[in-house]
Design brief:
The protein is built from 12 helices and 12 strands. The chain has helices at 18-27, 53-67, 100-106, 111-122, 128-137, 145-154, 161-170, 183-193, 221-232, 251-256, 267-270, 284-287; strands at 6-12, 34-38, 42-48, 72-77, 86-89, 174-182, 197-201, 203-205, 210-214, 241-245, 259-263, 275-277.
Length: 298
């Protein structure tokens, strides 16, 4: 007995552009089975019995480069529910545009040194836990009020972060931040975006200044995977979750989730994720799940 495996190709442009979208649809020889998710910006294309999905993905990537087209796409098999019951997200350089520890280091004149360590850790070149201890150690003596000043003056939400959380929550999903950063920032980002829960590392202090230490155990790569398993258990497991992140410490939860999305990520991450967001904003994670503009809640 033969089985028809239906795939869905979701294509999203950074801004509405009918001509470019039509060009892409012509390349994949899309027929009539097209659903508009956002006018001239995002579409679903249903492809029945696609024999070589990896070849189509490679062809699309080459086509975008050749035509100098900027678009994000997700090609997925429709063997399970597209709309996930759990949204689990990294924070630094994912929900926000900064690495909090780099910004804190700027207040003690060490941003360049710390950011270089951060980049190597996020790229998977060095151990995340040891890199975090080293960087936090350089913050010893930083007055506690600086943390709030840093949040207020340096930290900005990435476009679409709030809409992503609010929309999925409005449609019954649980929303969680799991960050290798710090609770001081993660809890405030959760409050601003509407995420229901936040886990992160705890900076230790003496009541007035940072001590240069972080509470153990450190929330790193394996802790993110455990968080995915724990939060998704009530929904039937990780296959019912969408995970979004940018760094090497996000990779295990991205790989284990039902939809793993690399957001403006390092090549080591985007190459192993189910799909990537490189040109558009975080609402693309909604389009990838079949949400349309009329479903959005901001």
């Amino acid at each position: 007995m033969s089985h028809v495996i239906t795939h869905c190709l979701t294509v999203v442009l950074p801004k509405p552009d009918e001509a470019r979208l039509e060009d892409i649809l012509e390349h994949v020889q899309a027929g009539e089975n097209i659903q508009v998710l956002s006018e001239h910006k995002a579409v679903d294309v249903i492809l029945d019995d696609l024999e070589a999905p990896d070849d189509l993905s490679a062809s699309l990537n080459q086509f975008f480069v050749h035509r100098n087209l900027h678009a994000d796409f997700c090609l997925q098999s429709l063997t399970c529910a597209r709309r996930k019951r759990l949204l689990i997200c990294d924070m630094d350089s994912t929900l926000i545009g900064q690495e909090c520890i780099d910004e804190l280091a700027d207040f003690v004149g060490l941003k360049d040194k710390v950011s270089k360590i951060t980049e190597r850790a996020m790229g998977g070149e060095i151990d995340f836990d040891e890199a975090l201890r080293e960087r936090v150690g350089l913050l010893e003596g930083l007055p506690l009020p600086i943390l709030q000043e840093c949040f207020d003056t340096r930290i900005t939400l990435n476009p679409g972060a709030r809409t992503l959380a609010q929309t999925m929550k409005a449609h019954g999903a649980k929303t969680v931040i799991v960050s290798g950063g710090f609770t001081f920032f993660a809890e405030q980002v959760a409050a601003k975006t509407g995420f229901e829960a936040a886990q992160a590392n705890v900076l230790l202090d003496d009541g007035s200044h940072l001590t240069g230490a972080v509470a153990e155990p450190i929330l790193g790569r394996e802790a993110k995977r455990r968080a995915l398993n724990n939060y998704s258990a009530e929904f039937g497991g990780p296959e019912n979750a969408v995970a979004v992140g940018d760094g090497a410490n996000d990779l295990t939860m991205i790989e284990a989730s039902g939809m793993g999305i690399a957001y403006c990520a390092r090549p080591t991450v985007s190459g192993q994720a189910d799909c990537a967001i490189n040109h558009t904003d975080l609402t693309t994670a909604l389009y990838f799940q079949g949400y349309s503009d009329r479903d959005f809640v901001s």
